[in-house]
Predict the structure.
Amino acid sequence: MERSAPLIQNDAIVMGLLMVILAFIFTTSNSEKKFWKKFYTFIPMVLMCYFVPSIFNSLGIISGESSKLYFVASRYLLPASLILLTLSTDLKGIINLGPKALIMFFTGTVGIILGGPIAILIISAVAPDVVGGSGPDAVWRGMTTIAGSWIGGGANQAAMKEIFQASDKIFSSMITVDVIVANIWMAFLLLGAGRSQKVDKVFKADASAIDALQTKIENYRLSISKMPELPDTMLIMGIGFGGTGLAHWGADLIAPWFQQHQDLLQRYNLQSLSSAFFWMVVVATTIGLCLSFSPMKKLEGVGASRIGSLFIFTLVATIGMSMDVMEIFRNPGLFALGLIWISVHIILLLSVGKLIKAPFFFTAIGSQANVGGAASAPVVAAAFNPALAPVGVLLAVLGYALGTYGAILCGILMQAAAGGV
């Protein structure tokens, strides 16, 4: 079903609206008025930054589908934010967080691999028509593209479409399921970020290493903090966007070389290496990490992470405007399939998290590094504390590397569950 044109089609106006929304949310979340204090006690500010634009999209006022703002935010603001958020990275502190972050990440991957075939088996017992289809239109083939997206990213998703020969029709339906279900889960993670201490008590989790890292970084920021002047802000912007330029330049050099060797990549299932977006994220993250060993690290004292967070929240708003909550009611069968799938992922994550007493932060990042990738893993990490954003970035890069392998295994299992149609 084709959507009518949105009421506001000028991206300049849409951008203005998004910034007014963000300004309103940030102002009210810091208000001393009782109503707003109580409101934000239950609804995290980050969740509002994501959810309010989605309401405007669902009402047809704006449209993420017809807007270029997400592309601009993900290609220009995201790499700049990755650089500015990682230039103060305490790598030693991240390593001291221990193995639980990796355990939860791989648990999330396994949950997606197993969740797909389990969802097919459950739905086929209740409504077999939903998981039917044959040849390129088979639902399981379309689901392999979601597996690629949820374990790796867009490049892995496109690779699965080619490997399992899903038709454009089923692929289009699955993109909608992918976006809506993944964003609903992201909303719950943002909600949970505001209640992480309560969840940790239930899990009997020891979050002392995370708290120690936060405290160490916050103390470092205080020790170098000073009132920023225009040259300081100009230097931050120069490093952020100069690094973004280098990230794109590096991606433009590296990705075409891998694209010229597609046969080799397909042989070893490494199609994600041909993605320019993948290399842009890798180069930007590397630049930020290298700067963390240089005097540029002191830019944190004049607001580097604050500006990086501004870019991240702008990205959050553009992600929100791409979600139309009404789509759930237009194709309920496929969305039920997607919700069961993500539920298996969630149940496995929470079970293992409870077993190893992992802090909720590791559960959230382990999940989002898989399902959301580099565009949203740092968003969820920053919802806990901006100092933790680099953890989300590093795990998301790992997800890109492993995505194709996990998605292929998931596809084989879904084919078996669907009867090999």
Observations:
- Residues 116 and 341 are 5 Å apart (CA to CA).
- The chain has one domain: 86-306+323-417.
